[in-house]
Amino acid sequence: MNTTPQASKDDVLHMFSAESNPNADTLARYLRRYPQYREALIDLSIELFTALKFDEVPAEKVPSDKSKQAWSKFQSLLSPTDPASTTPLPMDNPLSNLSDERFRELASELNVNRLFLSRLRDCSIQVATIPQRFLSIVAQELTVSVEGLTSALEAPPVVASGLRHKASGKPGAGDKITFEEALTGSALSEAQQAALREMKDE
Amino acid sequence: MVIPLKKTTQEGESYHRRTEIEQALSALDGLAPDQLVERLTCTQQAVPFEVLVYFLRHTELELGSEHLGPIFCTFYGRLEAALRKVVSDAWIDLAVTIREELSERIVEMIAKDRDSQEEKMYYWEVNFNHALSNLCTDVLRKHGPARETDPLINTRPLTEESDSGEEVSHEADIAAAEFINPNPSKIDDVAFRLRLMDAINELPEDERRAVGLRWQGMPIESQDPEVETIAKVLECTERTVRNRLKRAIEKLRVMLQAEELQ
Fold this sequence. Notes:
By secondary structure, chain A is an all-alpha fold. Chain A contains ten helices and no strands. Chain B has two domains: about 20-145, no CATH class; about 150-260, Butyryl-CoA Dehydrogenase, subunit A, domain 3. At the A-B interface, α1, α2, α3 and α4 of A face α4, α5, α7, α10 and α11 of B.
């Protein structure tokens, strides 16, 4: 850093603390060049001289359990966009981008009707109540990972379109129904409902 | 390219890290992530703390959890070991609590810094020892004993500051020598060093500066007008410097002995 004798106090103090060997000679040089910051430089030199030397402590060979716990804590504090974050970025909902034709086909392949599939698409069903086997089949059909699909379906429910919640007044964005409620309330045939119930996790 | 510090001088030039840190970072720049992890986690040739902080702070380096995790664990393990030595169970009550608070604060600071455009932790890449020393002092003060028991409060100056007293002559130098050139095993004792640092910080400003400068090796006086001396730097006579040193040394002795007796 090429500071002038008119450099600011902060800049001069920074430069002094970034000296590799801030001893009495270094201090004398700074005091001659920056007499206006005499007291601050003296105080900083004493602080630096008396600072503890943490680098002298040898490193441990094996990461401790505490290190691993601290890493988990650290990751949990990171923003979801951080490259080292645990939380994967929520993927776009793979059901939202389907053409009408593909949507109909998918409903047929899954042996459900379009109302049921719309509820799934609109994140109206509590993901925790959806059988893993069913999620796996949907993910496979959409060629996405189960984790990615799960993460996308955990988003708040979409209220704007489709039929839902006929019975209990206006739907709110916070409402989600269970998988069982979706089965019984989506005009699925008895056979379709039975097939889906068989997939339920034990 | 090594990411420069965002903080700049009033002329707009980036602040620099210490030369050896810049060199270490340049040597690591461009390594593949696996090689980088291998180098940073190596215990034989441990890199300075500042280097680890650099890789932990900057999201621009795009290190994913697979690579950042081992670097973090190395950093944390070394931090734990360093803090165990400084904040030892043997001489500080609540040592475990204090160490945990220190390490938690550092972890949170780094995590926040990764998500921020501000440059709050830049100094940890410049002078880690100083930055951590300051944080330790803050936390130790918070948990430290009540200051009403401070032996300094009831200490009377042994000699009034005067430019005429003969009694101060070279006694101060002899006393100072005991503190300034103590037994190497004692000065390497982190606990002793921390107590001494704390005791020096408790001294009145003029005495603290005299002792601090003497401790760094600055002469009290010199026949050579080119040489910076404590008397010149503190703008007083050499006799005043000796008086200040004498008073300071006596107080330090009282404080350190009082602590050792506890």
